[in-house]
Write a structure and sequence with these properties.
Blueprint (H helix, E strand, L loop, with lengths): L6 E6 L6 E8 L6 E5 L8 H11 L1 H4 L9 E6 L2 H17 L5 E5 L4 E3 L2 E3 L1 H5 L6 H4 L5 E7 L11 E7 L4 H8 L11 E6 L4 H8 L8 E5 L1 H13 L5 H12 L4 H18 L2 H24 L5 H13 L15 H4 L2 H11 L1
Parallel strand pairs: 1-10, 4-8, 4-9, 5-8, 9-10
Antiparallel strand pairs: 2-3, 2-11, 6-7
Length: 347
């Protein structure tokens, strides 16, 4: 197990291209830094949910997360719902001509599609083999009905789809399935169709010490943040491009640090304390917002990906005169080779 900070990005899908985001949940024993992003909507049809899943499954099917081994869990409210999702996922994977498969987990025997079905009859293997097979190819998705929400420790779990009301300790236990550490696990992702931000905040407050901050997120915010950051002239577009080229070219860390340290010097010498705090805050906001939007939007933006990567390197080096920097030390903990794979996939 490695000591690292894992970001949990939670998304509630809505009818518009805006999402309500909440963030900065910090453990009483801070081992993880959470960014929880929510926007309530519990009335979407299964077809509408599937359209969102189609976009967000790139987290898993893209094979860039956790060194290409990322797995996803679908948490459903009933066996019938789990069976519907299992059928929908199979149809989607077949439509994509994907080699990957889903596993369904539920108890007992139930009627579906005019016949009696069990886990074993649908999966082709027994219940006791589910935790083993989900780690193996070609299985990527675990669809659950009242199973694996507690006591299931699988480091390869990266993405979770929640289609079930959650509250209290059940919400904490369920979302925490993603918190198991892995050397190549840099973030996590949750797409939640059922729960609102107040419910999740109430559930986590007994276990986390900082206040959740909420705001609306949309792609236009990135344009505004990018413009504000560029106005400070701490870095240039040429420096961003050079660092990315060096990084993707497997350059030594010293060559990256030379570029970053020059930017830090400008940050310290040219900006007063108030501007430093504003710059660093906006840099973090850009990285956080881009990471969220890149997970749910069907298109990419190489320029945003480059800047986000550059800022991920720069932020830990920036002094924090006022705020407590919970991200300090994160960069050193990141597996640089596996992160490089994710960056290449985004460009």
């Amino acid at each position: 197990m490695c000591s690292r900070t894992t970001r949990l990005s939670t998304v509630i899908s809505g009818s518009s291209r805006k999402w309500k985001t909440t963030r900065n949940l910090t453990s009483k024993k801070p081992r993880r830094n959470y960014a929880v992003m929510l926007n309530p909507s519990s009335t979407l049809s299964l077809r509408r949910r599937r359209s969102w899943l189609t976009t967000s499954t790139k987290q898993v099917l893209g094979r860039t997360k956790i060194g290409g081994k990322a797995r996803a869990m679908v948490v459903t409210s009933s066996v019938r719902r789990a069976l519907d999702y299992f059928q929908a996922f199979n149809a989607y994977l077949k439509e994509r001509k994907s080699p990957y498969k889903a596993i369904v987990a539920f108890s007992g025997e139930h009627e579906h599609g005019g016949k009696k079905v069990t886990e074993a009859s649908l999966n082709g293997f027994g219940t006791n083999l589910i935790p083993v097979r989900i780690r193996e190819e070609p299985y990527c998705f675990l669809i659950c009905a009242e199973k694996f929400q507690t006591g299931y420790d699988e480091p390869l779990l990266h993405t979770m789809y929640v289609d079930k009301p959650l509250s209290g300790i059940k919400a904490v236990q369920t979302l925490s399935r993603l918190n198991r550490s892995h050397q190549k696990k840099h973030d996590t992702f949750v797409l939640d169709f059922q729960n609102d931000s107040d419910t999740i905040q109430t559930a986590f407050e007994p276990y986390y010490r900082t206040t959740i901050l909420a705001e609306e997120t949309d792609p236009n915010k990135l344009h505004d943040l990018k413009g504000s950051l560029e106005n400070y002239q701490v870095y240039s577009a040429k420096e961003v491009d050079k660092l990315i080229a060096l990084y993707l070219g497997n350059a030594d860390r010293d060559r990256l640090d030379a570029i970053l340290d020059a930017c830090v010097a400008i940050y310290i010498d040219s900006l007063d304390e108030e501007k430093q705090v504003d710059f660093k805050g906006k840099a973090k906001a850009f990285v956080r917002t881009y990471g969220f939007l890149a997970s749910v939007l069907p298109y990419g933006n190489p320029a945003w990906e480059k800047l986000s990567t550059f800022l991920n390197f720069l932020i830990p080096k920036l002094p924090a005169p006022i705020e407590t920097d919970l991200s300090k030390g994160i960069l050193e903990a990141i597996d640089m080779d596996s992160y490089r794979v994710e960056v290449r996939a985004g460009l």
